[in-house]
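Cross-check.
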Amino acid sequence: MRRLTLVFCLTLFTIVLPSCEFEDVERAGYAAQALVRGFRPLTHDEVYQMSLGVGARIAGSRGVYDRDPALTKYVNMVAMTVGHYSDRPDFYYRVLLLDAPNEVNAFTTADGRIFMTTGLLMMIENESELAGILGHEIAHAARGHVKKAVENERRKIALITAASIMLEDYGVFAEIADSCFDIIALRPRSRRQESEADRYGTYYAEAAGYDPHGLMEFLKRVRDKQVNTSGSSFKALDTHPDINRRITDLEETIATNFRPRTWHPVMITTSSGRRVERSRYYTAGLRR
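Predicted model, tokenized:
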């Protein structure tokens, strides 16, 4: 990529310098500045500001589920627990629930802001599944997948910006304004990154004390539901590799890396005195 930048800069000056026009030289300088800014790594503050803006747009596009503060707190506690065992425990992982009961989806920003639809949450049957799903999203942030995608996009934008400056065609900026949102919420990541997120998310969840089969069991149920119904929008599957391949890979990961052990789900007592598994109790409110 650095070689591409150098070639682009040399091309600019090859075109500009023979003319010796001051305006052309000035534009070439601005174009070079755009390239330098676009090809340097994102700073911590840039990641924060980008994530803040994208998060606001995601929340605005679906609406925030705020009818059950206890549920939101519970999901966030699980996320922070799993995140503590990730490659980036310094990130402040937090989850915002989106009021989208007919959409099964989740995504994260580069700094660990996780967005989960109520449609996905309604399909979760136990806390290990929730931990596995959150672990997958945490891995995208902790392993730098989102940041790398944004940096790659910024390099493309830098090239386009530099060309638009030289050609005095500033209409291109309107076309790239929503790139970061598209990267996080709409575009598929590579199969390698998704496989890595499945694998590391499972590591994180297991290290936090959860059954490592959680994500795999959830994916199996999503696959079966997708085959048997057409009511829910499985947006997450639109931007992920083949679900059967993911399940097979997770089975191999678990068989290779984890010792069999007994997992004890956390039980709570309801107001009526009935003992139920914790995440089933909280998600029951969404099913009414």
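Residues 68 and 285 are 8 Å apart (CA to CA). Residues 44-144+186-262 form one domain. Passed to J.P. for a second look.
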